[in-house]
Design a protein that fits this description.
The chain is mainly alpha-helical and about 200 residues long. It contains nine helices and two strands. Strands 1-2 form a two-stranded antiparallel sheet. The longest helix is centred in the first third of the chain and has 38 residues. The protein is extended and about 75 Å long. The two termini are about 25 Å apart.
């Protein structure tokens, strides 16, 4: 758009101006066609998501809006068999780090052998979840105060969320903040000992 705004400053032959103008119009028409197809594709995804029997599970996740909830369902529901093995699910999603020790040297690094699309989806969603969910924000901020970076704190939060999702799939029950809070209190979770903060809602659009 900036280039088009300065179009009158270009000193080029008229033939080139005509060619570039035709290219610009053709590009706009292709983008309009693409946008129409994307709109139709999004509508199909929304409809398929609503009709899926596990729709309520993923629609209940805090911060998982009309884009991320179907992505989470599409990736995680195929891994139903891992619902009884949360650690395996965490590894496959790339949330669990890899530890390597040789002699006195111990190194922890990001897991590369994983489902990278699922990892990206989890990363986007857990970042949003902390704006909708008190305990998720507290958990994230606690890890940041330990000196961990943004991405590392999200990985830790992602591991915790995947344990919750595994239980949701295993028990076929949607996420319920009240039930989760009660369970945390019963188990003496350190998260509940921290002062809650005000929730600021955002959208994944």
């Amino acid at each position: 758009m900036e280039i088009f705004a300065r179009a009158d400053q270009f000193c080029v032959p008229e033939a080139m101006i005509a060619a570039k103008s035709a290219l610009a119009v053709a590009t706009v028409k292709m983008l309009q066609t693409l946008e129409a197809q994307l709109t139709r594709y999004r509508a199909l995804i929304t409809e398929c998501f609503k009709q899926h029997p596990d729709h309520t599970l993923f629609a209940s996740l805090p911060g998982a809006g009309p884009k991320l909830a179907p992505r989470l369902l599409g990736e995680l529901i195929a891994l139903k068999a891992l619902a009884d093995m949360p650690q395996a699910l965490q590894c496959l999603a790339g949330m669990a780090p890899v530890s390597h020790q040789s002699g006195k040297v111990s190194v922890v690094y990001l897991r590369y052998q994983c489902n990278r699309f699922l990892r990206a989806t989890i990363h986007l969603w857990v970042d949003l979840s902390r704006h909708y969910c008190d305990w998720a924000r507290i958990y994230y901020e606690a890890h940041r105060k330990k000196g961990q970076g943004h991405a590392c704190a999200l990985l830790c939060l992602g591991m915790r969320w995947l344990k919750i999702i595994a239980a949701m799939i295993r028990n076929q029950t949607p996420y319920d903040a009240a039930i989760h809070t009660r369970n945390q209190l019963q188990h003496g979770s350190w998260v509940m000992q921290l002062q809650p903060v005000q929730i600021t809602k955002k959208d994944d659009d």
